[in-house]
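Our preliminary data section would be incomplete without showing what the modeling component actually yields. Below, a chain of 164 amino acids is followed by its predicted structure, encoded as tokens that our downstream tools consume directly.
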Amino acid sequence: MISKNWTIRAAMAAGMALAVQGCASSPNRMPPAGGYAGPAYAAQPGYAPAPYAAAPAPYAPPAPAPYPTAPYPAAAPFPAAPVVADLPAATTGITGVTERKPDLCKASSYASSVGQPGSTIPTLGLPGAYRVVEYRGIEPQDYDPDRLVFRLDATGTITKIDCG
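Predicted structure:
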């Protein structure tokens, strides 16, 4: 059994080597340096030469299309839109969206902290929840109108205080 497998593998390897050698080193693979002199067979009577051997026909623009003798009929006027009396009442706003109420977290009472370093935030005596958003930091998109949000710049200075 082992000798049969090795025999098959050796035969396949030899066949592949011959195929690669035939493709790479065949003298007939490239055209001769001087080009082809002509066909290697005699021309047969009754056959026309190849179409690309003849000179191309000169360009002639196509003949113009014939136009209708009578003009097209006039288009019928569009009918007026029907009047519908039973229209529903117009809605205002988008349903299901929570309105953001201004300053529920009392952010305006901490406006004096803008321009102070972010290290002063724990010393402000904040009564509820707060969030510190650093410069280019990741901020979750959950909204809590009672939470203070302190936004810092690249140097760690408080630049804005709002609710969220």
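Residues 66 and 72 are 14 Å apart (CA to CA). The helical segments are 2-25. Preliminary results of this kind motivate Aim 1 of the renewal.
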